[in-house]
């Protein structure tokens, strides 16, 4: 995790590194930090090329935190973004998770 953070200090807008950092937080059981990093990633890429997997992972982490309303909101946003960029696989995964929460 420290190595990724050091690389992000050099290139804070590297989406792949930021996503990797979020996954490291999730792996260590810190879902709150995972969500925070993913929200930052989503904000940083919103006006360029959206990082679609961030929405699914954030939704899953929010579910693990039992923040279901936030998870549903995140997944709905992700479905819209995935549809807009043509990522039907991610769109289907997020839609499926969203339906399972309803």
Question: What is the gist of this entry?
Answer:
This protein has 102 residues and is mainly α. The chain is 79% helix and 0% strand.
Task: Specify the CATH class.
Answer: Mainly Alpha
CATH topology label:
Serine Threonine Protein Phosphatase 5, Tetratricopeptide repeat
Spell out the helices and strands N to C: HHHHHH
What structural class do you assign from the helix and strand content? mainly alpha
Give the domain tally. 1
The number of helical runs is 6
Low-confidence stretches: none
Name the average pLDDT.
96
Largest sheet: none
Number of strands: 0
Identify the CATH architecture: Alpha Horseshoe
* Share of residues in helices: over 70%
Query: How far apart, in Å, are the first and last alpha carbons?
Result: 35 Å
Please name the fourth-level CATH homologous superfamily.
Answer: Tetratricopeptide repeat domain
Classify the beta-strand content into a percent band: under 5%
What general outline do the C-alpha atoms trace?
globular
Radius of gyration, rounded? 13 Å
């Amino acid at each position: 995790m420290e190595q990724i953070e050091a690389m992000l200090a050099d290139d804070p807008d590297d989406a792949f590194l930021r996503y990797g950092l979020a996954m490291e937080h999730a792996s260590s059981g810190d879902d709150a930090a995972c969500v925070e990093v993913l929200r930052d990633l989503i904000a940083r890429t919103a006006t360029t090329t959206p990082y679609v997997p961030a929405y699914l992972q954030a939704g899953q982490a929010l579910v693990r935190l039992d923040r279901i309303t936030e998870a549903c909101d995140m997944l709905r946003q992700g479905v819209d973004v995935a549809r807009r960029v043509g990522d039907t696989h991610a769109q289907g995964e997020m839609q499926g998770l969203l339906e399972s929460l309803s």
